[in-house]
Amino acid sequence: MRELDGRSALVTGGASGIGLAIAAALLGEGMSVAVADHSEEHLAEAERLLGAAAPRPGAVVLHRLDVTDRPGFAAVADRVEEQLGGIDLLVNNAGVGLSAPMSTAGFDDWDRMLAVNLGGVVNGVVTVVPRIRRHGRGGHVVNTASMAGLIPMLDAGGIYTTTKFAVRGLSASLRLALAPDRIGVTCLCPGLTRTRILDPVGGADAPAGTPTFDATRDPVNAEFALAQGSAMDPAVLAACVVDAVRANDAYVIAHAEFDDELDALHAEVLAAVRHDVPVAPGRRAVEERRRALVDEVKNSIATG
Q: What domain of life is recorded for the organism (predicted)?
């Protein structure tokens, strides 16, 4: 998607934080943008903020959406296609950050986080990708993971880490799967960025029992909240996303403060490889053929 002007995007979790910044950046490139979000309050604020950035009348449409609601997702996608003439870019950005610590979490904690952070991405892919494929113009998918999809977090962020590692794996495989359809896939891995991720799902309308931020219970998230004062401006990250969509990059990693930790993680994985265990020739041949197929797809992506 080197040319963005005149094309259309659907951004989930698009009424605040990273999603709102991405929506604004896409409007700035001449795209029409559908903003989907669970919060009526945030949608009203987004309508006010994005209205002035719209490149033409009707370029911004807003829809309330719970990304775990599959029929609701399909209904929103149908309406967006009617309003904007199709969907060229899907940004699966909706997510939540609060849960019980992994070591003490119950099924409800796991189910809630998996349903939004992973299930919401799956629902976006299953609902929207066939629509992008159907119009034949090609397109792009951006899935918001996290640096926690590359580097594990401590106990308080363990369930979040699980979901974001899954989004990274989903994105990497989806990138290979959609290459023949000229649909690119980018995995966005933010570090500390100014967002509302510690807000409960649903905001003021959150159902009873929804986790809420409590610094005394959750010192890791307390540190995260404190660090918001020096967190990245989401507009900076959004500009990187625009660049990645145009270049069909596999990842957006804009937080260079993780360089050393990524190097250490890579070294740790390589050090775990046992070179004293024999590799059967047949097994090696299977993996070489698999790798050749992957490399072929990657080369096709690189050459456009």
A: Bacteria
- Describe the strand order of the beta sheet including 32-37 as a list of residue ranges: 60-64, 32-37, 8-12, 89-92, 139-144, 183-188, 251-252
pTM of the model: 0.90
Q: What gap in Å lies between CA 285 and CA 273, rounded to an integer?
A: 18
Q: Does domain 8-259 have CATH number 3.10.20.600?
A: no
pLDDT per residue as tens digits for the range 220-229: 556 656 666 7
Helix (H, G, I), strand (E, B) or coil at 37: strand
Please check whether residue 159 is in contact with residue 102, taking contact to mean a CB–CB distance below 8 angstroms.
yes
Which residue's structure tokens are 């909706």? Answer: 94
Up-side HSE of residue 150: CA atoms within 13 Å toward CB?
A: 23
Query: Do residues 16 and 195 touch, judged by C-beta distance below 8 A?
Result: yes
Close Cβ partners of 78 (under 8 Å, ≥ 6 residues apart): none
Q: What is the pLDDT of residues 148-191, one digit of tens each?
A: 999 999 999 999 999 999 999 999 999 999 999 999 999 999 99
Q: How many CA atoms lie within 13 A of 221 on its CB side?
A: 24
Active-site residue set: 160
- Alpha carbons 81 and 61: distance in angstroms, whole number: 11
Helix 17-28 / helix 40-51 crossing angle, nearest 10 deg = 30
